[in-house]
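Technical appendix A lists one of the benchmark inputs used to test multi-chain prediction within the project. The record comprises two sequence entries:
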Amino acid sequence: MKLSALHQSYLNRRNNNSFRSPLDSSVDASGKSLLAVFWLILHCLCCLISLLLGFRFSRLVFFFLISTPSNNNLFSSPPFRPDLPPPRSNSTATATEVKSSSSRVVVGRHGILIRPWPHPDPVEVMKAHRIIERVQKEQKAVFGSSSGAKRTVIAVTPTYVRTFQKLHLTGVMHSLMLVPYDVVWIVVEAGGVSNETASIIAKSGVRTIHVGFDQRMPNTWDDRAKLEVLMRLQALRVVKEEKLDGVVMFADDSNMHSMEFFDEIQNVKWFGALSVGILAHSGNAEEMVMMSMDKRRKVEEAEGEEERSSSLPVQGPACNATTDKLIGWHVFNTLPYAGKSAVYIDDVAAVLPQKLEWCGFVLNSRMLWDDAESKPEWVKEFGLLNENDGVESPLSLLNDPSMVEPLGSCGRQVLLWWLRVEARADSKFPPGWIIDPPLEITVAAKRTPWPDVPPEPPTKKKDQMPLSQGDNVVVIPKQQQQQQRSSKVRKPKRRSKRNKHEAKPTDTTTQVSSSTKHHQERN
Amino acid sequence: MTNLLSAILLFLFLSASSAQHNVRTERISGSAGDVLEDNPVGKLKVYVYELPSKYNKKLLQKDPRCLSHMFAAEIFMHTFLLSSPVRTRNPDEADWFYAPIYPTCDLTPTGLPLPFKSPRMMRSAIQLISSNWPYWNKTEGADHFFVVPHDFGACFHYQEEKAIERGILPLLQRATLVQTFGQRNHVCLDQGSITIPPFAPPLKMQTHLLPPHIPRSIFVYFRGLFYDVNNDPEGGYYARGARAAVWENFKNNPLFDISTDHPTTYYEDMQRSIFCLCPLGWAPWSPRLVEAVVFGCIPVIIADDIVLPFADAIPWEEIGVFVAEKDVPELDTILTSIPTEVILRKQRLLANPSMKQAMLFPQPAQPGDAFHQILNGLARKLPHDGSIYLKAGEKVLNWTAGPVGDLKPW
């Protein structure tokens, strides 16, 4: 009641002196009015402070006045919360004390316990990751592959020494290293066994069989595909002779595989087919976008194309939607690319796949053996295969192509991607991609994202390049660099783009100005 | 001879342990035995009182939201009992009596139940029962059971201090209470009560199920409030400061995926996590426990002295991780120092379908679900001790006890 009186008087307040309250009839002494004024001012002050803080802070005040802080291990952090009072285990007049004498859980206000360094401990983070790893391993073991069989994966890769070999082969190698099953990697090399390839695949840690093939890789994509077929057949012969047991898959060195692919092929019985995503890039992104826009327009107008209208063309088995039985094949539609596809290795155009790429097929290695007992009749005898008859796709290994098992939920899942990107036939690259000894002359590239560097003060060394190309030239002769290394603060900016003795700049990418085309055989 | 014996024992042990490898689930046996799969039919008989619809149907008609909130167990229990084989129409042969009242069906516009009228409703219902049927007076309610799924059970208040002040409704002192609230040495948990899980919608959870081979990549997961600024602006009251401690200590920790978001992939995220935090809120129980069990995420229970559902049938110590509220700042150390074998075992126990089934209230009822576990619990309390039967005219309960407001008719 007092508060309501004060409230009313607060609203009516104009004059300190003439303080009137409708309920307080006898306003006699000035002392009483002073007290009232004091309460009023205190009330206003409290209201303002509460407004600022955002809550009724009167409880806080009472705590600080009444209860004494107890000495338990409470540590609260300053920045966010105001210092919280300790738990009210010894404070007054709450009904909590009524019953819970035997309970150690106290109702009421508790402090928020924060440890002094609330950040993750790296040792514990590592332990947590080990736990996660172990749990996932267990999940895979219990729920993972449906049959539970863990068959060896036999990967067949045709390759040859060229600029991008290390790039592509390392990608395939890392995929194979991550496979949770046993892997036998058969690498067939055109041009014979070479040290470069051998040194790359030696780092894989899986069992490798390095086979040499006498012919050299030709320079046109079509001839190359034919040679690759012969190389793969050679690898299959190795499988037959060594009597390797497992699932044979064709890992072309520039393809990309997902880990689910290896899990899925475990389910093959004899001969399986999967969907392959085709990335018919030329490296020229603009052209690709234009092409896909054209394609999409055409697809919207025309109908009845075998390809899906999504922007990624897919090659693989086609199934009946309801019965999930194989009824045909999705083949790459070459019509949009007619006349615009790459013929030679260094063409700046889309590289098209064959009708049915080998990488989309997997087979049981027992199919290739001579004397496998339960080999079905619809499998041709591999030993009698005549490759001069023209083997285009692995379907030639079968008598009856309708017995192919579609994998990857009947071709709906795309688990690997086909891509062909190669450098120019005459592109030079440092052997093994190791530059040894380090180059003496470095020249900055014309377009760099790094900020401008003031040029080095001229030195007395003889071999200095003239400051002709732009203003970002850093000339660092070798001996002086080593002397100055301690005094230099700047980070070294080596952008060595060329060998010292090479006069002509060579681009190791496919973005080549279409000035000349070289037709000679690859060295 | 002893060598042979030890060899045999060793062989048995090895074969047993190797048999456990790659086994998906493990049997669950609590202190009451392997009772999750027990069938209560034939072990007890329940008589359902015919109460006027103002106690049940009319409330539901007024607000159908009562069917989907976490207190819906009281309604579904009624529907289940009406069509269950344990129901008997002859009250003389009944072991247990059930009065279908929905005390938690008085909702605010935002959906929270108001408990202020519930004591009066209960009182009025019990007066009706005791005057129309003789069975209440025979035992003063000791062979009756009521479902009170509200925050603090039969204390009928959402604020803990007020709930403790009120205590369990005096008229329900002798009856068995089937409630979600459970905390040791607390006024609102009677000795003979049966703790049940809160209602979580089974169909909704079913639709969000992922295949079990999806790898679990989140270490600790939690979604919910850490501070309740509306009801607890100063902080320190909500969850006894435990949730705030979780936030302050672990918001910078990448292993802890905790926030106040409301993601649409909440159920899916739980299935991708190894540990799910189930800290107390205003009350120690929460539907998070049910969700964690259904989705195979190990529940980390941060609520001192909590009594979990069906605690005598389910060995919660072996399934979940219990962390004291004062140990919350060391939660990461605690969780990472659990041996991997123990974690794998907990996951196997959680994968047991009877475990998941025991936490759910499916419509229609299925064997092994929470309804049957409640009946199992009631059956385990049989036969009734002779001392509950009162002599004619003897009165134990005080019908005028409690706050004055409760005595008003409803």
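The longest helix of chain B spans residues 2-20. The CA atoms of residues 132 and 386 of chain B lie 24 Å apart. Comparable benchmark entries are summarised in Table A2.
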